[in-house]
Amino acid sequence: MSNLSENGDKNKIKSLKLMLVGEAAVGKSSIMYRYTQNTFTYSMLGTAGIDFKKKDVVVDDTKIKIVLFDTAGHDRFRKIIKNHCRGANGIVIVYDVSEESSIEKLSNWMTDIQENADKDVELLLLGNKVDIAERKISEEQSKELSQRLNIPMLETSAKTGFNIEEAFDLIINNILKKEKFETEKTTENRETPVIQQKIVTKKKKEEGCQCLIF
Ligand code: GDP
How would DSSP label each residue in 134-176? Predict the structure, then answer.
């Protein structure tokens, strides 16, 4: 996936809303800044409720305007986050591999998403801070988590930039694949009655009926 400034067909524009959720201090804001501005700082100010940044990318000649929402992990902001889940095309659930407690409340996030997000929302799990040597959550545990929740997973580091671009490429491509599949399904469903109609009218004509063939 390339940056919009590099190339792109100016005629096609699409907009996707992505969200980062997860416990406080797992690295959501850092991931947002690494992805949108390629920067990292240890002294991040906590997110007050919700923040967002934009980034334009090009996929298969289509301009995609990414609006990436960063949310606060504290319980007091939960209502705002739930409201923002609606209309999101993709939600990235972040945990910290150096902090065991960061996966304890994953089921709460899953419940919030299931109750508030659109049914076809694309999900992605990110085990962040893999640059830290003293891990508390192994890659094996992350894979098990991914299988149990049936959500793709990647390990990342907002600090080094490891897998950050890849993570967003993955979720954006999965959203676009799903949309393409849905469009093809809708088109097929729309075409079926027409084809059947043609067969029926043709048959009737053969039987001597004065019906029109469409
Ligand atoms: P948020 O509350 O989930 O948005 O977390 P922040 O992005 O504010 O990050 C919390 C702390 O973790 C900050 O001090 C960050 O600099 C640090 N941090 C975030 N991502 C990483 C990472 O990948 N590796 C390391 N070592 N520290 C990180």
Answer: S-SS-HHHHHHHHHHHT--EEE--TTT-TTHHHHHHHHHHHHH
Sign (positive or negative) of CA dihedral 172, 175, 179, 181: positive
pTM exceeds 0.85 for this model: no
Nearest to 1 by CA among 27, 25, 35: 35
Query: How confident is the model at residue 192, as a pLDDT?
Result: 58
Q: With 90 as the cut, is the pLDDT of residue 76 above it?
A: no
Ligand 1 centroid to Cα of residue 186, in Å, is 42
Ligand 1 mean position, distance from CA 86 (Å): 26
Residues with CB under 6 A from ligand 1: 24-30, 42, 44, 46-47, 73, 128-129, 131-132, 157-159
Superfamily per CATH, domain 2-191 = P-loop containing nucleotide triphosphate hydrolases (3.40.50.300)
- Is residue 213's pLDDT more than 70? no
93-154-177 Cα angle (round to 5): 80
18 or 212, which is more confident?
A: 18
pLDDT of residue 81: 79
| Residue 80 pLDDT | 79
Residue 212, pLDDT score: 36
Order the strands of the 50-59 sheet from edge to edge: 2-3, 50-59, 62-71, 13-21, 90-96, 122-128, 153-155
The alpha helices in the chain, defined as continuous H runs, are 28-37, 78-85, 106-116, 139-149, 164-206
